[in-house]
Every structure is written in structure tokens, then in C-alpha cells.
Write a structure and sequence with these properties.
The protein is about 65% helix and about 5% strand. By secondary structure, the chain is mostly helical. Among the domains are: about 160 residues, no CATH class; about 80 residues; about 80 residues. The longest helix is centred in the middle third of the chain and has 59 residues.
């Protein structure tokens, strides 16, 4: 195969100038000639290899002196000799590097092969495959060469077109690359399309979404409003509760007003001139001095009781015998007797002292039996079995008559079952505790206290008493609101009794306040239940009402109140009672609670 002649050096230099430099010579004749030569080379489709910037190998265009491997058998001796001679011959023109590497690889492989073995036929088939691969590589190389030449021509054509366009453009934008601008425009349109799609997606997905800052502001505002709402709701509940209490108090006040008005009308209708109690001085035994002592500090109603007691005492002394009341169930155990018994005719002081001794004995021993049974046993031990019943009837007739005497009236209430003995015991314990507190405050042990010290002791002993109740107790001692609180008084005199066992005004005021506080406590319970006296009430209702009016009530005290109201042992009180399982008339429940030691354990507003 004859090798084509290489092109002149001027063409190579011109081509190198076009490819390697951006400053192209604008000689129209030279450019036209160059284009014609390239087109003529492509139309002839000659397989000519030429070099551009030394990147393309010119082989085999001017390798006429190069000897190509002939179609020889690689296993023959003649092949080895020729191969050796080829290695020794100096080459005037260098082969392409790839071809040299391929030939060297083939030689090394042939030398490594042992052609004398039984695998010679297999090896022949492999030096056949190698020749085939070599021919295929050669054809691929030629195709790559032609494609490179066509690519160079296209690049030149594009460069010419760019030069022509740059001449037609305005002088202000000659420096811009049209390809670059076209590409930038294309990319800008793609970015615009993508951005438009993202914007539409964002609008569709987040059209109803608010900014995070606005959300946090609204969330904080909502939280503040919720807290205000909860606070207002609690205030509203408290106001409703207070309003309910005020309505109940209003209803109670209206009822009391109507009752007082009715009493006023009745008093106005049946009123008589105020009696002259001085007329009794000559009738009562003991004369004016004793009457003055009996009438001191008493109103008209109390003076009537005193007068009746004096009259009854006279009739009582005239009796020699009492008739027995029988053995009926309604008769107290210590009075169950048929026949007549002797009237022992003791003095009033003797009866008081006997009752005091009975109470001392009761407090000194364990309370295994009821007080009426204990009282009769006490009389048997004191006077013997034969006179015990006579003394029982004698004491009974005396304590039934003298209501103004504290010891007699309280003993009568306990013996007749109208009051629990715990009421009397608790009252005595309160007086003893109050005396102890005053003694502790008296650091000098002089038996004297100031009014201010008395106020402090009363407040610490009775923390739930209102201020006006404290003032009432201090006034019973002799306190004057306009005087100084540093005035001294003998506190032991507050707990003394007269010869008939009557307490001084201070202890009497304590007892009266206790009774008033109990009445107020039960009245508040009735208002909390919201029922009339003839209605029935269940055990859960009373339990709930007691806890509402007295939240500080402990479980033990609460169960004792319920046990008293429903006449059930504390151990038999159910823990969880359904509504309506255990019911009782409200009037009966309040009467039973009135008999027991009922008192407030704490302020109502305590949780």
C-alpha cells in the first residue's frame, strides 16, 4: 500500500495557527484555499494520516521504509529469525507508540510460549486471534482519524460563523460570545421554568401556612388568653359559690325576719307591762339580799325561771314520798321502779356536791357503761342498795326543777339522754386547758394577767372565734374597751363557783358561746344540704355537706359525727355508699347531732 505524500509545512503551520490561537488571520484568499483543500481531502476519502499539533501520529502516511509484519506463522524458525532481524534493524522512522507496545507485547508472549508442547495448535489459534484483533484495532484507529478530521472541520466552520456574526453585531457587544449568550439564555430559561414550578408548588403546599414568627406570636397570645380564661373561670366559680352562700344566708335571714316579725306581732298583741321584780324580794326565802344575788345579770325570762324554781323548791320540800314511774322502755334505767320511795330532802348544795362527786368518779374510771347505769351504781356504792332508788328519785326531782344551775341542768340532760356526756367532759377539759394556758403566761406566778395577755390566751385557745366573741369574753371579765389593756386582774377568780356550784359570768359566757356556735354549725349544715326539716337525707349527702362547711374535718371526727347522726357504730360505717342506700329524716339527724359534741375544726375557706 503506497503511502500518500505529506502536506507542505505551510499548511501544517496555518492549521496549527487556527487551532492553537484565538487571533486568526483574516486573509480571505488564504481561508478560501484552506477550506477547498479540506473539502477535497474529505471528498476523496483517502485514508491519509496527518499530524495536528503533534497530537495525531502520521503513521503510516510516510513510513515507506517501515516493514510491517507479514503473514507468517509465529511458531516457525523463519519467523523468529525475521523477528530478531527486525529488532536489530535501525528504524529511520518511529512507529506509533501504541503499535510498538502491541508488537512488543506480542513478541514477549511468543517467547514465553513453548511451541514444542502439545498445546502448539491452541497457541496457533491464539497468534490468529491476535492478528484479527490487530486488524480490528487498525480499522478503529482509521475511523477515529477520520472522525477527528471531520470534527476539526466543524470547529473551524463554527469559528468562521462566530467571526461573521461578530462583524454584524453592534460595537457595544462585540466582546460577548454568542455561544455563551445562547447557552446562558437557555440556562436562564430552564432556571425560570424550574423556579416557576417550585413557586407553584410552594403556593399549592403552603398557601394556607402562616410564618413561624406569626405562629409563635399567636401561640403566645393564645396561651396568655387561656391562662386568663382559666383564672376568670376559677374566679367565676368562686363568685358563684359565694353567691350561693349569700343566697342561702339571705333565705335564712328572710325566714328569721319573718319569724321575728311574727313574734313581734304576737308580743305586741299579748304584751303586758314590765313586771316589778322587786316585789319578789319579800317572797323568796333569804330576803332582798338573796333575791339580788339570784336576779343579778338575768333577763325577765330567766327571772321567771328563778321564781319558778323558788316556788317549786317549796313544794318539793313539802313532799315526803315519790311515786315510781314503772319499768317502761321510755323510763331511764336509774328510775325504773314500782311503788313509793322516800324523799331525802337534801339541800340544793348537797345535790350539787353529789353530782360533782359522781362526775369525778366517772372521769376517774374507764367508761364501759352508759352514764345513767353508772350513776345508779354510784348511788348504790354511796348509799347502799336499799336507799339508792330513793336518792335517785330525789336527785332526779331536784335537777328537773333547777334549770338555772349549770351542774344540775347539764346532769339532767345527760341522764335523760338529751345530751352526750362527752359534751360536759369536753367543756370541763376546755376550762382546765384555759386555766393552764393562763398559768403558763403568768411568768411571775403572781396570779395576775393583763387584758392584752388575756386576749392572747383566748386567741391561741380558740383560734376560730371571731373578734366580737373574744370581746364578749373579755367584757365578762370586766374589760372596758375605752380603758387600757394593761389593767391587771386575778385570772383564778374566773373559774371559781359560788356555794350552790354556780360558775362566774366568764365560764357561763364560754358555755353560751359553745351552744351558739353549735347551733350555727348545724344551721350552716342545713343550708348546705338545701333541704327542709321534713325531708330525708342520705349518709353520702351529710358526709359531703360536712366536708364542704368544714374542710379541716379529719376522718375520725367525721365518722364520729356520722355515727351519731345515723346511730351506727363507727366500725359499721360503709366506706362507699350509693346515693339513697342509708337515709334519715333531716330533723332527726340534726337533733342527734345537737346532742353530741359538735364543733368546727377549721375555717371554711381552708382546702
Amino acid at each position: 500500500m503506497a503511502s500518500p505524500k505529506p502536506r507542505s509545512s505551510s499548511f501544517t503551520t496555518t492549521s496549527r495557527t487556527h487551532l492553537g490561537s484565538s487571533g486568526v488571520t483574516r486573509d480571505d484568499a488564504f481561508l478560501t484555499k484552506t477550506r477547498n483543500i479540506q473539502k477535497h481531502s474529505l471528498s476523496q476519502k483517502q485514508k491519509t494520516l496527518f499530524s495536528i499539533d503533534s497530537y495525531l501520529s502520521p503513521w503510516p502516511t510516510y513510513s515507506s521504509g517501515q516493514t510491517i509484519l507479514h503473514n507468517r506463522k509465529p511458531c516457525s524458525d523463519d519467523y523468529h529469525q525475521r523477528a530478531g532481524s527486525y529488532q536489530q534493524q535501525p528504524l529511520g522512522i518511529t512507529k506509533p507508540r501504541y503499535l510498538e507496545q502491541l508488537e512488543n507485547y506480542l513478541r514477549k508472549e511468543l517467547l514465553l510460549l513453548d511451541l514444542g508442547t502439545d498445546s502448539a495448535q491452541e497457541l496457533r489459534l491464539q497468534v490468529t486471534k491476535l492478528r484479527k484483533n490487530l486488524a480490528e484495532e487498525y480499522l478503529r484507529y482509521l475511523s477515529e482519524r477520520d472522525a477527528r478530521k471531520i470534527l476539526i472541520a466543524d470547529l473551524n466552520e463554527l469559528r468562521y460563523q462566530r467571526e461573521d456574526m461578530s462583524l454584524a453585531q453592534s460595537p457595544g457587544i462585540w466582546g460577548e460570545d454568542p455561544m455563551k449568550l445562547t447557552l446562558a439564555l437557555k440556562m436562564a430559561r430552564q432556571d425560570l421554568t424550574r423556579t416557576q414550578m417550585e413557586l407553584n408548588t410552594m403556593k399549592a403546599s403552603f398557601g394556607d401556612v402562616v410564618p413561624r414568627r406569626d405562629f409563635e406570636v399567636q401561640e403566645k397570645t393564645n396561651k396568655d388568653l387561656q391562662e386568663q380564661l382559666n383564672s376568670l373561670r376559677d374566679d367565676y366559680k368562686e363568685v358563684c359559690r359565694e353567691h350561693e352562700i349569700l343566697l342561702q344566708l339571705h333565705m335564712s335571714t328572710v325566714k328569721e325576719r319573718d319569724q321575728f316579725y311574727s313574734e313581734l306581732q304576737e308580743l305586741q298583741r299579748t304584751s303586758t307591762p314590765r313586771p316589778n321584780w322587786a316585789k319578789c324580794e319579800d317572797v323568796v326565802a333569804g330576803g332582798p339580799d338573796r333575791w339580788q344575788m339570784l336576779a343579778k345579770g338575768k333577763n325577765s325570762d330567766q327571772l321567771v325561771d328563778v321564781l319558778l324554781e323558788e316556788i317549786g323548791e317549796g313544794f318539793l320540800r313539802e313532799k315526803d314520798f315519790f311515786h315510781g314511774l314503772g319499768y317502761g322502755e321510755s323510763i331511764p334505767p336509774f328510775l325504773r321502779f314500782d311503788g313509793t320511795v322516800e324523799n331525802k330532802k337534801p339541800t340544793k348544795m348537797d345535790v350539787v356536791n353529789l353530782l360533782k362527786d359522781a362526775w369525778k368518779a366517772r372521769l376517774a374510771e374507764e367508761q364501759k357503761e352508759s352514764f345513767p347505769d353508772f350513776f345508779f351504781n354510784f348511788l348504790e356504792r354511796r348509799f347502799g342498795p336499799s336507799d339508792a332508788m330513793a336518792w335517785a328519785y330525789t336527785i332526779f326531782e331536784n335537777i328537773k326543777l333547777f334549770h338555772s344551775n349549770e351542774v344540775m341542768s347539764q346532769s339532767y340532760a345527760v341522764l335523760m339522754g338529751k345530751r352526750k356526756e362527752s359534751v360536759y367532759i369536753k367543756h370541763k377539759e376546755t376550762i382546765a386547758h384555759l386555766l393552764k394556758e393562763m398559768t403558763n403566761v403568768d411568768s411571775q406566778n403572781e396570779g395576775l394577767l393583763t387584758m392584752e395577755q388575756l386576749r392572747t390566751v383566748l386567741k391561741s385557745t380558740f383560734p376560730f372565734k371571731k373578734e366580737e366573741k373574744i370581746h364578749e369574753l373579755m367584757e365578762a371579765v370586766g374589760w372596758d374597751p375605752n380603758s387600757s389593756n394593761t389593767d391587771l386582774f386575778q385570772y383564778c377568780s374566773l373559774f371559781m363557783e359560788d356555794e350552790e356550784g354556780q360558775s362566774v359570768p366568764f365560764v357561763q359566757k364560754l358555755w353560751k358561746q359553745y351552744l351558739d356556735e353549735k347551733d350555727g354549725y348545724l344551721q350552716e349544715l342545713k343550708h348546705q344540704l338545701g333541704l327542709e326539716l321534713h325531708d330525708e337525707v342520705s349518709l353520702p349527702k351529710i358526709r359531703e355537706a360536712l366536708m364542704n362547711i368544714d374542710p379541716s374535718l379529719d376522718k375520725e371526727t367525721l365518722n364520729s359525727y356520722l355515727s351519731q347522726a345515723f346511730q351506727l357504730p363507727v366500725t359499721e360505717l360503709p366506706e362507699d355508699v350509693k346515693e339513697g342506700d342509708i337515709v334519715l329524716g333531716l330533723w332527726t339527724a340534726l337533733e342527734r347531732l345537737q346532742m353530741a359534741d359538735i364543733r368546727r375544726m377549721g375555717p371554711r375557706d381552708t382546702a
